[in-house]
Amino acid sequence: MNSTKFPYNWDLKDSKTTKDKGKVFSCFSCGGGSTMGYKLAEFDVIGCNEIDPKMMAVYKINHRPKYSYLEDIRTFKLRKDLPKALYNLDILDGSPPCSSFSMAGNREKDWGKEKKFKEGQVKQRLDTLFFDFIDLAKELQPKIVVAENVKGILLGKAASYKINYVNAIYKAFDKAGYYCQHYLLDASKMGVPQKRERVFFICLRKDLAKPFLKKIGFFKITHNLKLEFNEPEITFSEIDEGILGKRKEINSEYALKVLQNVTSSGVCQNFKKSLGGKLGGISFVQQVKNKRVALTVNANSRIAYLDGKHEISKNEICKVGSFPLDYNFLKQQPRFIIGMSVPPVMLANIAEQIYLQLLSKLK
User: Which residues are catalytic, by number?
Assistant: First the structure.
């Protein structure tokens, strides 16, 4: 087990926290990955907003939120009947759906289009939900806003002069009353047994920011939060349950063909092209390597064990995602929820630094 303050191998039932670091509300809460991170860092997560009823059911059974809103954020942000507890929060957290920016998705082909993120949901423009979240921040005026997204938001046309979503996000936060700074972080350097790069926009309300401001160049002013992590990498050999692992045999002909072409890195490149079409609902296939860190868990992925014939076990994928082993996924695939979520240990490290460097000095 890793020696960090927030171990990846843990149980929800054993996590007793003080809840004294501040109040948090989670948007796009999914199964509660970020919520668990705040809880591990001793924050009190008082509620959530989520559009998917199945994800909300998973969230409720594991976290029992005081306030829960099963609702499209586009209507949620317009509410005038929210309780006072949701205003002036310590942290407003959110992970807007990232498929529009993911390098594994359709990216700019989907920009400007309404589509269903998942069956049963209403149609939304996924590339604008980030700005709906900022509108909510402007209304609720939390001390700090934390917004997470994929690395792809920094790349390609998303970062071009014509579109440049990051600049647009900075401008929107500025108009909402916040100094913004973004960080590209890798979970594998934060005590998580998974290479998972994610971008975090961390924003401090302007009326609180004076003691923390710094200049970047001639024009840009932002806060001085430092997020630097360098934990030793945790390879799959530390997670491998061996013969104890309850492994499901991979029965997808396509997946098995892909696994025959896995490179030394553990992933098959350009598998759709090599197979002449889509992969039967599987968007990513990787094979864990015993002396290497597992690659990013994708919600629709298959992660093969060392033998290339079985998927890794439920407990192993929980450890890879730093999810508690006793998490109740209801009838959802663990890999789906874990692939959709911020690793709890990753967020716990960030939340702890936000408290130590910012929030604790505001009190």
Answer: 98
